[in-house]
Design goal:
It is a single chain. The protein is built from 14 helices and 2 strands. By secondary structure, it is mostly helical. Strand 1 (48-49) and strand 2 (52-53) form a beta hairpin. Helix 4 (84-113) packs parallel to helix 9. The longest helix is centred in the C-terminal third of the chain and has 32 residues, at 253-284.
């Protein structure tokens, strides 16, 4: 065979139909030339993808940072029913959102107490958005039919959302104070103390009232310094103070914006409560709740609670 079409002396295939020796295997059996470069590039490509490292050994991963093993391992259905996982995750995610709301509301309360309102506005707006998220979460739970819920309900025992200590803290910081609501947590001293402290602390609205006084508004002393653990009654002097703010918003812009953030917050909270009631009625009708309440009848009573009555009345008075 001629040299042009056969095997060259270097061990490669030459001529027009072959590969040059420089790209083939050398005499020592290794890879040389362009082929070696290509193999190096391939090895590097296996270490990353679109710039992202593929080897996470020795570094903190996404799962490590979020403790996903613990979170994803926290669902323990008690029934053999497929739908119980939905019920568990619905309530666990709600508790996580409430945890974030509590952080934001406490920080906002502290800012209001220090007359530092700009950061408080952002925090309150975030809480309103979280509540909107929770409103839509009921859409997912409402895919649970009465028949499906009836299959898993016996496994819930007496556990109930009524016993959520975080929800109770949320109610308290928003001003809906009821001392009796501390009692469901007496079985655990740590939770009992936590809820008790929330009851006895000033609410977010209490701090706003004290802010109005610092700004020169005349408000009855009984509305300013009082027993924070007691429900707050409607205050005519406070109503008049807010009316002044709304009549001249340009002169009291920070207070005006704070008031509107409060209204946004209560508006979102009412929608969350209403969606809760309708979802419960849709799934269990008028059965007694697992925690012993009257179920829908009890939840409907909660719809009548007004957190910031003076801010709603000012709309009529303007």
């Amino acid at each position: 065979m001629k040299a042009e079409g056969g095997v060259s002396g270097q061990g490669g295939v030459n001529g027009q139909g072959g590969v040059k020796a420089e790209s083939g295997v050398n005499e020592e059996g290794g890879v040389n030339g362009q082929e070696g470069v290509r193999l190096e590039d391939a090895a590097k490509a296996q270490e990353s993808f679109e710039g992202a490292r593929l080897d996470s050994a020795g570094s903190m991963t996404y799962g490590d940072y979020l403790h996903l093993d613990q979170i994803l391992g926290a669902q323990h259905p008690r029934s053999p029913d497929h739908n119980e996982m939905l019920f568990i995750i619905q309530h666990q995610t709600s508790e996580l959102w409430i945890k974030l709301m509590l952080q934001e509301l406490r920080a906002a309360r502290d800012r209001v107490a220090r007359d530092d309102l700009q950061p408080a506005f952002k925090m309150l707006a975030r809480v309103s958005r979280i509540m909107e998220q929770l409103v839509h979460a009921w859409d997912v739970l409402s895919t649970l039919t009465p028949t499906e819920y009836s299959a898993l309900r016996p496994y819930l025992g007496s556990s109930s959302g009524f016993q959520s200590f975080q929800y109770r803290e949320l109610e308290f910081i928003l001003g809906n104070k009821k001392a009796v609501m501390v009692k469901p947590h007496a079985h655990r001293s740590d939770l009992h103390e936590r809820v008790r402290r929330a009851l006895q602390a000033p609410s977010l609205y209490d701090e706003a009232i004290r802010l109005l006084v610092r700004k020169g508004f005349a408000i009855d002393a009984a509305d300013v310094e009082r027993d924070w653990s007691q429900p707050r009654e409607f205050s005519e002097s406070l109503s008049q103070a807010w009316l002044q703010v709304y009549r001249k918003p340009e002169a009291h812009w920070d207070l005006y914006q704070l008031a509107e953030e409060f209204v946004d917050l209560e508006d979102a909270f009412r929608q969350w409560r209403f969606r809760h009631v309708t979802t419960v009625e849709r799934i269990i009708g008028f059965k007694t709740g697992t925690g012993g309440t009257a179920g829908v009848a009890y939840l409907r009573k909660m719809l009548d609670v007004v957190l910031f009555p003076e801010l709603w009345k000012v709309r009529t008075d303007l």
